[in-house]
Design goal:
The protein is about 50% helix and about 5% strand. The chain is mainly alpha-helical and about 270 residues long.
């Protein structure tokens, strides 16, 4: 009886211990669910399926992969070309920015490339990456004599990549990448075209005033004050009109000779 009781007690303690562990685990799960920050969901491009990173590179370059049909790979190559182009451009611009800042390093093989349907992890071999990155770094501090060398190096490595993929390269990358980008800080300081002040528009050409002959200080007239207009003093004129006597009609009559009056004619002696 004592042994049975002891065995029952041991099993009871074991069950209680397991129950406590289960409750603690559930509490931790609930706590983590409420306390963890929301992480934005990332959507992978389902067009390529399981092909991503180095596996995608190997499939596009013609290496046979188990479970991947060659026809499916050929159908995906037109969709892979924009991903490859973005990867090449990003590596070149990364080398350009690091060369400007003087912090040249080593690029990574994998890069997350956005697509209209989500994103795809792209992968490039290190020897191609190093050439693209170095071309961007050299172009950031290049002189006109170095441009031809950088152009040849960039077109050569991109041509090799496209030939490896079996893709046609129409316009060389040097035509679009070997252009120094304009600083966005200077453009941000300029006002937009519709909000530009009127003074910014070029003024109309004003005809030049003919030069006046030089005058000495004594001959130069004193400038009249601006804004003052001389008004005639009409008070004196009104006073003169008021004080002036108007001749009477009788006086006018005496002054004027009568038309019937005969003039005296002097008689000769």
């Amino acid at each position: 009886m004592n042994s049975f009781f002891q065995l029952f007690l041991v099993w009871g303690v074991l069950l209680v211990f397991l129950l406590v562990l289960y409750v603690i685990d559930k509490v931790n799960v609930i706590y983590q669910g409420y306390s963890s920050a929301e992480i934005p969901a990332t959507f992978d491009d389902g067009l390529f399926g399981e092909l991503a990173g180095k596996t995608l590179w190997d499939a596009m370059s013609g290496i046979p992969l188990p479970g991947v049909e060659p026809k499916h790979v050929s159908n995906l190559k037109p969709h892979y070309e924009p991903i490859l182009r973005q990867h090449i451009e990003q590596v070149f611009m990364e080398g350009y920015s690091h060369g400007k800042a003087g912090t040249v390093g080593v690029p990574t093989n994998n890069r997350q490339i956005p697509t209209p349907r989500g994103s795809v992890v792209s992968w490039l071999p290190m020897h191609h990456l190093a050439s693209l990155y170095q071309a961007g770094a050299d172009f950031s501090t290049s002189t006109p004599d170095d441009v031809l060398r950088i152009q040849q190096s960039l077109d050569q490595v991109t041509g090799m990549i496209y030939a490896r993929m079996g893709l046609g390269l129409g316009e060389p990358y040097s035509a679009t990448l070997l252009i120094h980008p304009v600083s966005s800080e200077a453009d941000a300081m300029l006002p937009p075209a519709e909000d530009a002040p009127a003074a910014a528009t070029p003024a109309a050409a004003v005809p030049e005033t003919p030069a006046l002959p030089a005058m000495s200080m004594a001959q130069s007239p004193e400038p009249e004050p601006l804004g003052e207009v001389l008004q005639p003093d009409l008070s004196q004129l009104n006073l003169n009109r008021g004080t002036q006597e108007t001749p009477e009609p009788a006086a006018l009559a005496e002054a004027e000779p009568s038309p019937n009056e005969e003039k005296a004619v002097p008689v000769a002696a």
